[in-house]
Amino acid sequence: MPQLSELRTPDDDWTGKTKAEDRRRRQNRLNQRTYRKRKMLQNSHLPLASAMSVLRSGDFASPLSVYGEGILTLRDAEQHVKLYEFTERVYLDYTLYAMWPTYLPALIRLNVLNALAHNATMLGIEAKSLCRDETSSPFNSHGPQAPNGLIPALPYPESLRPTAKQRAVQHHPWLDLFPFPRMRDNMIEGAANGIFDDDMLCYDLVHTGAGSEVEQPALIVWGESWDAQAWEVSIAFLKKWGWLVRGCSEIIDSTNYWREKRGEKKLINVKL
């Protein structure tokens, strides 16, 4: 029964109660919780069922597997503890069929962090180096390297192949991790011209602390990190960072695909 997923204490369980008044009181309490959760989901604009596909069902074999490779990017021990506590709590509630809409913003950002860290690994970039300001992309570093700027022994998808601009302009390696070549070029050009604050973008995309709401700029990853068709961009992201995806029709197409799956209107004539 759907109501039983809302049980929090033994007193909530109305099954086995012989008095109609006791049953109604407990059932009303559970119905109110279900109603409040539904309203929160409506306000979030993303169904919780879809949120769970953000962290794919196979990832819930254990709390540790939920981390993905994103934890490797964290330098602070306190951040490690917070991430562990959060993922353990999510895992426990998931196994009890008691997921809460308040998890949604953090789940979305955790998944983006994992996706970027995984792409870094695929490109031969150390995930732990991504939070160091002094780190430079290996694709334009001086010294011996493969002609295409990649470690030949590592297989990698075409969507992550470095562009001419990535090889020509020095930049931070985290800009190499998005599976959209035009977006990467826009970010590098913006940074070189002093009009792009990549620290602010990083904060918007992966910060999971207080104030990280679904309405804030967000990217959502529904599948493989390297697959452009698995990424979605939020309306808030387009309003704040739309120029970063100018000329990047793939991300609008993939966004419309996922919006249609949720029964939402497609983005038409997007002005960036």
TrEMBL record:
UniProt region (Disordered), positions on chain: 1-26
Domain of life: Eukaryota
InterPro entries: DUF3425
Residue stretches of biased makeup (Basic and acidic residues): 8-24
Protein name: BZIP domain-containing protein
Species for this entry: Thelonectria olida
